[in-house]
């Protein structure tokens, strides 16, 4: 599988502070890649370097198999759609006029405007001034601008910012289908892991300018496994069973807290506990918050 | 209150407001320094000549300069789409008071720098007719009052229209009209607030002979009625701005 | 590519309030000029030429640079607001083409302003001052020369508004530049200062031709300043990070 975006030891320094610190990014073709990290982790800075908006202090960027240089920047940008630090758009103009400007700049026929407006459900509001739009509508207009001209690569910075839950759901299905419907590869950033889980297949996690993890979502989920809470009718019967299996459990009122366990182990444990007559009422798995994953990743010095 | 002012000063620092403030007296002094009589000319009435010319320069520069200061103070909130947040963090009164205080401080600073610069310039060249204290005070008072009046009128425009463009356009148009009013019959000047620097000025051209090119300067009595009217206008724009901020929907 | 950029710029000007400015300044300038001309008929004896100086003196000294500055600041404010600068810099056009498109759009506005000024000059000359015949062709030529001198001011103001994110500061700098231009021109150093070139071209403060017999230095100076500013723009656009 070809990588559509690749960076090699990409760095950006502001003064002495390294906002992006030797990032190695590998985005395979035809995937939706989630670029995840807290605010200020360096996501936007990295994405801006991918587009040549800011200049790397060190390292290289490869887009669609070619190194991004001042010379081939334009042909590469022609195949790229982007949304950076949204929302943008000229407030005194309508959505239609804004998209005409983008069409002019990208050199694509104006009939594409109707298509992208349809995709983001702005057809009915296309003649209203963007200044009167809600944040969510502006965001959708930003996506429409990025979609103009059927780009092979979409780079979207926090596209779900400011959207309501329904809008987020819509955006998710739109982006998740993108590789299938248009063949595009999508790089999308977010500070919320939960938001990305149903959308992306590949994940890169960045914190304080450093890449902590890069790989498939399944791999990451291994790290995100949190502790288990077990509620049983007879804790006193359950405790010896757990002890015998070498699991240190803590009892608080009638709830047992177990450390993170592999799926197979949990399945076996449930069987044994049921046989012991402890009376299982409830078993809850806590997924770790992004912060906790960060902590576990930094503790493990990154996993790949 | 003190906290609001400190927040405002913090914003001003990041905006390099002091530099923008310095730009205005620098412009006046470059111009004045160039136009001022130098040692080859008659130095007996050189300060008269300088103070006769300064209000004319103020008329060209201040309407635009004040529009610059006023629109910057408010534009920082428009750009950040910030009023919504600010109104929840601090009362509108303290926001306005802080901005007004900062603006008044800037105007006073600019006037002092301009005045000190002009006096220093003249002393450096060895002008003989150092102005008496009451003339200096009167000049300071007039320049401050007119500038503040312009400042608040342009701040009002920026707030009402949520855009710095109209204030700047009015500033430039005002400068043009104000300058023209200086060359028209004196009565016209009373109807052009942007040019009030000129009718308020106590240094006048007493006579000018086109053949011998001999210029005689004079001093006229202070124009208190116009100064009071100008101060009233300034207070009017000030309270109108306060009303606009209070009633502004966010 | 350039044509597409210009088209995009033109769209942005649609429905924008900048057109008020375009009407206001020339009308005021013409009104004062005519009034002053009629008041001083005994001093201003060269009919059309005298009217020309009255109409254009303050305009070309102070307000032309300020007006150009407003046009330039307005175009850049559209990019500085929100994150539009990211948007257009990430589109597949050369950064200098974006700059040049803005240049062309400002030139178009300035050209229209100049023509409007000439129209008002003609109108006031015929209707209010009752001057005989047609305005001398030289005045129209002055206008075009002023345009040529104004080109580098346009480029410089576009650069200033590009790097200074404040709307108002470049406008004040423009006004200041015009004043320094006036001072430089009065010491015959105007060719070394871009803001003075427009004043030279317009020939506003003297009835005899300022540039008579010395066109070459003027044209060379206009050209050199313009080239210098475009090189500077190219340098800034390709070597600075986009801050949006």
Number of DSSP helical runs of chain C: 9
Tally of distinct domains of chain B? 1
Reported for the largest beta sheet of chain B, the result is: 2 strands, antiparallel
Largest sheet of chain C: none
The total tally of domains of chain C equals 1
- Using CB atoms under 8 Å apart, which protein chain pair has the greatest interface? B-C, 36 and 34 residues
Distance between the termini of chain B: 22 Å
> Got a strand count of chain C?
0
Class based on secondary structure composition and strand pairing of chain C: mainly alpha
Distance between the termini of chain C: 23 Å
Judging from the principal axes of the Cα atoms, what is the shape of chain C? Answer: globular
Rg value of chain B: 19 Å
Helix content of chain C: over 70%
Shape of chain B: elongated
- Strand percentage of chain B lies at under 5%
Assembly status = heterotrimer
The SS-based structural class of chain B is mainly alpha
Show unreliable segments of chain C. Answer: none
Could you walk me through the main structural features you see in this protein, from its secondary elements to its overall organization?
The complex is a heterotrimer of chains A (about 300), B (about 250) and C (about 240). With about 300 residues, chain A is of the alpha/beta class. Chain A contains 11 helices and 15 strands. In chain A, the strands form 3 sheets. In chain A, strands 7-8-9-4-10-11 form a 6-stranded mixed beta sheet, sandwiched between helices. In chain A, strand 13 and strand 14 (about 255-260) form a beta hairpin. In chain A, helix 4 packs across helix 5 (about 135-145). The longest helix of chain A is centred in the middle third of the chain and has 18 residues, at about 165-180. The radius of gyration of chain A is 23 Å and the shape is elongated. In chain B, a hairpin with a 6-residue loop joins strand 1 and strand 2. Helices cover about 75% and strands about 0% of the residues of chain C. By secondary structure, chain C is mainly α. The longest helix of chain C has about 35 residues, at about 45-80. Chain C starts with a helix and ends in a 5-residue tail after the last helix. The chains are: A alpha/beta (about 300), B mainly alpha (about 250), C mainly alpha (about 240). The interface of A and C includes residues 78 and 102 of A.
